Amino acid sequence: MNVAQIYKDASALLEGHFKLSSGNHSSFYLQSAKVLEDPKTAKLLAEALAAQIKEAGIKVDAVCSPALGGLIAGFALATALDVRFIFAERVDGDMTIRRGFEVQEGENYIICEDIITTGGSALEAARQVEADGGNIVAYAALANRGFCSRVGSDLENKESCKLPLDKPLFALDDFTFEMYSPEECPMCKEGSIAYKPGSRGN
Ligand code: ZN
């Protein structure tokens, strides 16, 4: 499966001159939601992710995703694994599990995101599941930005990765992009203006 090509075909992997939320500039941008716009593609990707998890022999009772970004990927993964799906959401900045979702003592959870950058939101969701008595057996994402080391990749864990090293991270591919500070950005030096995705109504 050529995951990068699937992202490109869905206009989910953009090329240009982008200003990232970190303030750095890059010539690539992942618009993750776009690849999940077609439910058939979402199903295909989630089934490939589920196959990795099953192959690793991991026993899963439920999937939990941090809202909003992880919802569709997490639901599709839970469908592929044939387990329950719940989500955590921010209320006044704090990740919480609400809406009547109940984590049972000793249940095994996978935390699923659409894309793992440093894993901050995934870790916060995991802490909530653990606080309610659940076990975190793995983390999962469709795409990995390369800060965290995933199963089956040679990329090493970067210092900025927030995910615990003792839990496996499953993802379909690494999307590592060169990033530049605005002062050092070669595209800026050529006179181009960085564009912040989402700032023009998309
Ligand atoms: Zn730039």
Topology (elements, then pairings):
Blueprint: H1 3-9, E1 13-19, E2 25-30, H2 32-35, H3 39-55, E3 62-66, H4 71-81, E4 84-91, E5 94-96, E6 108-116, H5 120-131, E7 135-144, E8 169-174, H6 186-189
Parallel strand pairs: 3-4, 3-6, 6-7, 7-8
Antiparallel strand pairs: 1-2, 4-5
Helix pairs in contact: 3-4
Report what the structure shows.
By secondary structure, the chain is an alpha/beta fold. It is 27% helix and 27% strand. It contains six helices and eight strands, in the order αββααβαβββαββα. It has helices spanning 3-9, 32-35, 39-55, 71-81, 120-131, 186-189, and strands spanning 13-19, 25-30, 62-66, 84-91, 94-96, 108-116, 135-144, 169-174. The protein has a six-stranded mixed β-sheet with strand order 5-4-3-6-7-8, with helices on both faces. The protein has a two-stranded antiparallel ribbon with strand order 1-2. Helix 3 (39-55) packs across helix 4. The chain is globular, with a radius of gyration of 17 Å. It binds zinc ion (ZN).
